[in-house]
Amino acid sequence: MIERAYREGERQGLGIWCHDQAGPYATRPYPGTSWQPEGAAARQPAEYVRAGAAKLLTLFHPQDGQLRAKGVTQCPNRVLHPWLQQELSAVLAELPAPEGTTEPSSERQLWERWQEGLTVHFTLPEKLPRLRVLLILDNLTGHKSPDFVLWLIAHGIMPLYTPLSGSWLNMSESIQRIIVHRALAGQDPHTPEDIIAWLEATAHHWARHPTPFEWGGKRAVRRAHNRQRRHALGGSGACTHRPIRRRSTIIEKWTHSCQMTH
Fold first, then answer.
1. What is the pLDDT of residue 209?
2. pLDDT at 232
3. Which value, to the nearest 10 degrees, does the dihedral of the CA atoms of residues 18, 106, 95, 210 take?
4. Would 65 disulfide with which of 106, 113, 188, 210, CB 3.0-4.6 Å?
5. Spatial distance between the Cα atoms of 224 and 211, rounded to a whole number of angstroms
6. pLDDT for 244
7. To which H or E segment does residue 133 belong?
8. How many CB atoms are located within 10 Å of the residue 246 CB?
9. Which pairs count as long-range contacts for 202-206, CB under 8 Å and 24+ apart, including other chains?
10. Contact 111/128 with Cβ under 8 angstroms?
11. Taking the alpha carbons of 153, 155, 160, 164 in that order, is the dihedral positive or negative?
12. Prediction pTM value
């Protein structure tokens, strides 16, 4: 369903956004390259003081690479939900106004379409607004709190939760890895504020020249290859998903034993 959202959502006029939290990142030396002259590499201390940690909140739009990010020292619901609501409200304000009107039954079918195949799904309210955004986020308890989910639905946002052990379906994982590597590689932060400043500055520079992301890659190719893998059968154009073990004849067994003897 999430893969279908990446491939079809934007063509259907829906905004596809991804959210995730990266970290925590402690105040310690981070390995990586630096701009030191050749032969005078930067040296990191062997000892450091644990002065706290920082996390990075991200809201990412793969279609054009737009990134909204904020550094925090802690990320409970009272911090995460207001930030997400503020950023998502800004996203909705930038989207084009929906054209025309649709029947309530058709609108409900559109919402229910993005719950097809789920073994557990939340109950949609009786009155639904126009669906405008699909929000992909992790399967955390805080993301499923009733107040937060009802706020999303009231603003035309459908949450799509990644399954357990399926966080790789969230493209925010990729952009966070890029931002964190650029901000912290080879650095030695002494306070959480240093980490937050570097993360936010790197995210700001990314937003100046964003790179669009497209769903796919080696994993998608391997999965498609496995789905298309067939084992041809002789005598016709039939095939099987699994290879059929062929029994060896007496002559083949005798030939094989002779080869092993020699």
1. 87
2. 64
3. 30
4. 210
5. 26
6. 60
7. strand 133-137
8. 8
9. 203/56, 203/58, 203/67, 203/69, 203/179, 206/65, 206/67, 206/175, 206/178, 206/179
10. yes
11. negative
12. 0.74
Residue 25 near residue 195, CB atoms below 8 Å? yes
Q: Is 250 exposed, middle or buried (0-12, 13-18, 19+ CB in 10 A)?
A: exposed
Give the Å distances, CA to CA, from 128 to 5, 16, 42, 112: 20, 19, 57, 11
Question: What pLDDT shows up at residue 237?
Answer: 58
Cα–Cα dist 56/67, whole Å: 12
10 Å CB burial of residue 155 (0-12, 13-18, 19+) is middle
Distance CA 93, CA 234 (A): 61
- Report yes or no: 207 and 76 within 8 Å, Cβ to Cβ: no
Nearest of 120, 97, 119, 124 to residue 108 by alpha carbon = 124
Q: What is the mean pLDDT of each run of 10 residues along the chain (262 residues)?
A: 82 86 86 76 75 90 89 89 92 77 72 76 80 87 86 88 82 88 85 92 90 77 68 63 61 62 56
In this structure, the strands spanning 157-161 and 133-137 are parallel
Tell me the C-alpha distance between 158 and 172, whole Å: 17
Residues 21 and 37: their CA atoms lie apart, in Å, by 35
pLDDT given for residue 70 in this prediction: 92
> Locate tokens 């005798």: which residue?
254
Would you state the pLDDT for residue 81?
Answer: 92
DSSP H or E segment with residue 108: helix 104-113
Residue 78 exposure: Cα atoms within 13 Å on the Cβ side: 2
